[in-house]
Amino acid sequence: MAPYESENPSADEADDVRVGRRKAARYVVPVAVVGVAAATIGLVPALADSGDPDLPKITAQQLVEKIAKSDTQQLSGTVKISTDLGLPDLGGLADSFAPGAAGKGGDSSADPSSKLMELASGTHTLRVAADGPDKGKVSLLDKAAEYSVIHNGEDVWAYDSKSNEVYHSTAPEGSKKSGAHEDVHGTPQELAEEALKAVDDTTSVTVDGTAQVAGRDAYRLVVKPKQSGSTVGAITIAVDAKTGTPLKFTLTPSSGGAAVVDAGFTQVDFARPAAKTFDFTPPKGAKVTEEGAGEGAGAEGPKSLPGSGSVHKGDDDFAKGPDGLKTIGEGWNTIAHFDTGGQGLPSESSGNSDVSGFLNSLGDQVSGKFGSGTVFSTRLVNALITDDGQVYAGAVTKEALVKAADAAAK
Rounded to whole angstroms, how far apart are CA atoms 392 and 402? Predict the structure, then answer.
């Protein structure tokens, strides 16, 4: 049993944990950082902690409440990002699917959505700063170049120093009033929020000792699925003992090995950043692209910040599928299912032998009562595409997907 965990938690305490989780999901994030970071990164990561500080004992419910009561509005620091999804190396192929690959006249290398692909793997360093709900800055450091997203009031600016291009958009309506971008992801704080949203009867929440992150004493909150079949092993959130701010987020897979996502501060300061931190004027000679200046499908600009998981206008048919998007199972074992209308993967019989061979090399061939299909795997999310166009996807094992497909075929 983990330290500080009640051996027989009462029903009231369990309810308190869930209530605290909902409050944390609402209040945990310094929103200026979250709103800007989400425009820059899809996943974030971490750093080594050192030492086990001697802190007063605390229960899981008390620690969740501490996060919920946290009201960090100002901070600055450095975040180290490491992501290992186990994705295959597709070389230049991935670039062809990235936003802007079509070469429309309004595309810009500074468009935040174009940065998501490169942050899906490897290790990166970010500088972050926040001052309340409407001022934030995130800078992605890459050797001699720098990419920054600055949120200042109603304006969101993105600047790519390598190409000397600027992308300008308007902050989502209501962001200043609510102080939160509830549909975006990125920083350790936002990742912690998403993890706490998953807390229910299928989840174990405990306190597992202490750590020191970025020179600050912290408690370790551990969130684990109670169910078997999930690819998620555990989520560990290092919570600042003084402010209740999540400083580090680590997601380890049930298969073991290195973390899939390791996100955290290597240096953090809770003092108010200098006002000039959030000032931005396009450099002389820079190409400036306004949101919505593209052509065709991109003319209206994004409906939500990248990484939000929201369905954009024009994507409805894909998201719903002809028979609509459905879910199977509950909790951590939830599987999304939709029917593409018989559009399975290209096959040799259809004359697409080269494409078929390439796709098959990326996945595992499976069969069952549902027929046959291909499972495409990462260390976190797996997807089964059957030959008759059924799609099953979730943070579950390959065996769980096949079982779900068999059950649906009855």
Answer: 9
